Amino acid sequence: MGRLDLPILASSFVNRHGNVITAIASVAVAAVLAVIANRAFAQRGRTLARAVARGDLSPVADTRLRFVRRLVSVGILALGVTIAITQFGPAQRVATSLLASGALAAAVIGFAARQVLANSVAGVMLAITQPLRIGDAVTFEGENGTVEDVRLNYTYLRTGTGTRIVIPNERLASGVLRNDTVSTAPAGLEVSVWLAPDGDVDEALAALGALPGVTRVAVAEATPDGVRLALSAEPVPQERRGDREAELRAAAVRALRKRG
Fold first, then answer.
1. β-sheet bridge partners, residue 190
2. Which domain does 242 fall in, by range?
3. 227-252 pLDDT per residue, tens
4. How far, in Å, are 103, 130, 164, 203, 222 from residue 243 at the CA level?
5. In a shared domain, residues 156 and 89
6. What is the largest distance, in Å, between two alpha-carbon atoms of the chain?
């Protein structure tokens, strides 16, 4: 008797909870497909690098490939979630109501998610125009670092000290970005150091002007809090600009401290 009841109970359970089972299965299948698609794109990129570039992908190709991988994964997951939602009657009625008042729903959702949408649109534009690429040395709002990743909503920089900086793409797209890797011409150097208000300016100028590689030293700014001195140095390759500026700044501080 128990053996005959088991198929009946299983069939009854499926009939009662079929929508939930279908919804869970839809999300699970979508997640698996997203992972498979992501790995397939990554493998294809490595194969392309070996066949064409005989090494690693170029920064341009790597940035675009990462963007496409994430876009495809998000699309697959969104499709799975949509299929799962449509399995429930209340959700279908809500969807029908939203469609009936589509203009109002679009306005409300657009207002609530305006920052997320702006970051996503900016991410698409950054992936297409590529003012920065994976591995580029950039400066943004006074922060120097190497581009670690460009995602749909945020861009990640890694500074020389290992700090990770997260920048919203909308802010990045509307701001002023300095990319020291795109240009191949040697970059001129200029750093600033501050002198105390009662410091000897002439002696500081002489000390800084004697530093190796320094071509010019001048008073850039005078305020009640101190005097800013600007140092110019010989051009260096773009990829060494950040390191050379740090070295020059440290040498200037040591020279000023030595002079007292």
1. 232
2. 187-259
3. 899 999 888 876 677 788 888 889 98
4. 54, 24, 18, 27, 27
5. no
6. 105
Q: In one letter, which amino acid is 239?
A: E
Tokens in use for 55? 């090494």
Q: Which residues make beta-bridge pairs with 150? A: 155
- Please give the pLDDT value at position 54: 46
What six digits make up the tokens of 62?
């790597």
Query: Could you tell me the sign of the dihedral formed by the alpha carbons of 205, 210, 212, 216, in that order?
Result: positive
Q: Is residue 161 part of a domain?
A: yes
Burial of 141 (0-12, 13-18, 19+ CB in 10 A): exposed
Whether residues 173 and 85 fall in one domain: no
Tens of pLDDT, residue by residue over 135-184, are 888 888 888 888 888 877 888 888 877 888 888 888 887 888 888 776 65
In a domain, 121, yes or no: no
pTM: 0.41
Query: Are residues 70 and 163 located together in one domain of the fold?
Result: no
The H-assigned helical ranges of the chain are: 2-48, 59-85, 89-100, 102-112, 114-129, 169-174, 201-209, 241-259
Residues 6+ apart with CB under 8 A from 236: 186, 187, 189, 244
Kindly report the backbone phi and psi dihedral angles of residue 71, in degrees, each rounded to the nearest multiple of 5, phi listed first. Answer: -65, -45
